[in-house]
Amino acid sequence: MCQKLVNKYNVAGPRYTSYPTVPYWNAETFSLHQWKQVLKQSFDESNIEEGISLYLHLPFCESLCTFCGCHKRITKRHEVELPYIKAVLKEWQLYRDLLGAKPKIKELHLGGGTPTFFSPENLTLLITELLRVSELAENYEFSFEGHPNNTTEAHLQAFYDLGFRRVSFGVQDYNLKVQNAINRIQPFENVKHATEKARAIGFTSVGHDIIFGLPFQTEEDVVETIQKTEALMPDRIAFYSYAHVPWIKGNGQRGFKDEDLPTAESKRKQYETGKSLLEKVGYTEIGMDHFSLKTDGLYKAMQNETMHRNFMGYTASKTQAMIGLGVSSISDSWYGFAQNVKSIEEYYNLLENNIIPVFRGHILNEEDLKIRKHILNLMCHFKTSWLTSDMMFEELPDVIIKLKELEQDGLIEFESKQMTVTEKGKPFIRNICMAFDLLLQRKKPNTQLFSMTI
What we know:
Elements: H1 3-9, H2 32-46, E1 52-58, E2 60-61, E3 73-74, H3 81-99, E4 104-112, H4 120-132, E5 135-146, H5 153-161, E6 166-172, H6 176-181, H7 188-201, E7 205-212, H8 219-232, E8 236-241, H9 246-249, H10 264-280, E9 284-286, E10 290-292, H11 297-304, E11 308-310, E12 313-315, E13 322-325, E14 330-332, E15 336-340, H12 344-352, E16 358-363, H13 366-381, E17 383-385, H14 396-408, E18 412-414, E19 418-421, H15 429-434, H16 438-442
Parallel strand pairs: 1-4, 1-13, 2-3, 4-5, 5-6, 6-7, 7-8
Antiparallel strand pairs: 8-10, 9-10, 11-12, 14-15, 15-16, 17-19, 18-19
Helix pairs in contact: 3-4, 3-12, 4-5, 5-7, 8-10
């Protein structure tokens, strides 16, 4: 990666888990009534053929990881588990009443927080009750995020018995100084134990999350972490840049000083070194920030061009409707987005009054939908086109002009109303997507909203 290009393109930019991005949602005109309408439309169009996805946000953690940008509640009081489960099931009941037909579950993912904060018995209760009033799609996929320190054999067995076959463990980095800075102490032995137990029980896809750009982290730390990771050969690896956004997450990301973070040049070297090592031992880069073995379903989805990206990250298949349950969860009907309230107390209160606990969202117009397709194509397949009218929009000629500079820098190539991201351009995929982001261009933020792109 050329340093000149890094200096030029290392700007604040979205990660594009959605378009429009959250800061540009039309929250002022959005209403719960609109959200219900577009979700019902999407469900009626797609449930029978492809089913829906469910994301469950379980927000509790026993300690605060200071690199984390998720919505969480720090507590050691496990009596919070059952009231929260009861609330999530109530929210699911409200959605089922709205949908009017039995949902077919294609994907189910548990994130957090720390899902394995909950006991295996309570997790079994939650999932069993969710599925009792649903049916399963063919080739369904259930997955969860596990903390290596508290994911027990009982957790893994309970999840397996419920139909889960994919688990992702947060590793971040194995250097103790880095772990101390981010308040995430977990020895390699804990990750090894959790990974091997998952495989022994029968999980077919085990993932590890690794972060570069963490405080005090060096290129040597990244090498050591990946060398230890190689000993376990997880099926998938998320290798992504630490997003330093303390203005959004408050003091939670201020467990260290800004000067403790690696420079942009150091982060670039960490990324390049890490990517090279991963590819050397048999991983293929998948979309942005992700790598997988060729035996994993995500690699096969990339090859078949069925890979999708949403608020759950990259998924091996697409459903038109995704419902998020729990505090702060985001739902996606394709035609609109909706986010739940972030306060647990407010979440409980709204559900007690039989109100779906949404507090903001966005209904996509025709232009939004077209641009969303382009950004999804780039994020998932590193290419897009405007060969047909459904991919053309009024300001497309202006976007092409912006893309010409990226072409001159060797990041993309044009061919007859289509463009492809080059190998040189893949690290700059967020910048390439920004050329299509009309809302970002029309209203440049006065303050920094996003992490740096590189």
